Amino acid sequence: MAQDSRTRVRHDSRIALGSKPRRRNSHDRRHPPFQRSTAHERPPRRTPCQPGPPAPSTSERRTPVQPSTKQRFTLEPGVLTAPCVRQQVGSFLSGWSNGQHPDTKRNRFLDLHHFAAFVLHEKVPPPDKRDNTRAATVLLGLLRVQPGHAAATGFLEWLGARNYSPQTKVRKLKTLRLWARYLYEKRAIYRHLDDFPIPSVASLEALKENASDSCPPSTPREVDDAKHLSTEGRAQAHQMLEARDQAIVNLLAHSTLDHTQLLELNWEDVDFGQHPMHEDDALAPPARVQVPRRDGHKYWRRLVPHATHTMRRWNRAYVSHFCAALPDRPVFSTLTGKRLSSSRLYQITDG
Fold this sequence. Notes:
Number of helices: 11
Strand content: under 5%
CATH superfamily of the largest domain: Intergrase catalytic core
Radius of gyration: 34 Å
Oligomer: single chain
Largest sheet: 3 strands, antiparallel
CATH class of the largest domain: Mainly Alpha
Structural class: mainly alpha
Number of domains: 2
């Protein structure tokens, strides 16, 4: 009893002297653990599809601009206005351009704006009104629904019509390839442009010099050129187009020739040897084609038997339609003998 009184006096004296009582432990069984108020709980983490703040290194718009109704190529529906896509592309664009020289960054953003203006059939906005994220989203939306070879080829022709230098054309195509590769590595798309052949500066300069002598490119609606023909003439024209398209697909699949080399071929660059052209058997020697190097000089390249057989069949179809295969005429042409355009070639190969 005396011990309890002494303990009570000692405890009262500590309270009188202003000392703090013993701090309660949350694991003490005599007292329940501390409960955090629900008013101070941490907010849930934002999902990727919820709108967030824009990337600081790119210019943004609070209200995205709607795409043009006259766009040249189809994009993924709603890709230019979806907030989650804009947030994701803005983050990718910041990572892609991080560490680049300011001049390099500015030029690459301008290249994306030019490509977006071509695809959407719009004008390039002034510098103070450019939305880099929207321009970068165009290539993403394009590659999500279709291969980008036809668009890249048409973009090259669009640049040529505006008298851009060959060096600028090559740089812009490389920018598209690098941006597509970055999106592919981030798993934002499942296509890239690594297999798109970028022409050399020397070949672009040669095409620019011969632009006055060359014929205008063909249009995708080549069948319209045969409307004025008779029924028999239209049937022959369709057979010629089918033989040409099949030859292009087979040569790309069974030879080392690429799209640009096929377009630049003339009949003087094809050598069938001394074997008669009306005969087509296994004893025929392999055909040779003359293709340019990067330095502009040409060299002969042999074709495998299947590609040789394809080239011989196409030569006979060409002669049957045009009566002769003149040395200075293109190997792959339209119904009127004009050189096939690169955009039309990619439309054939992409199906």
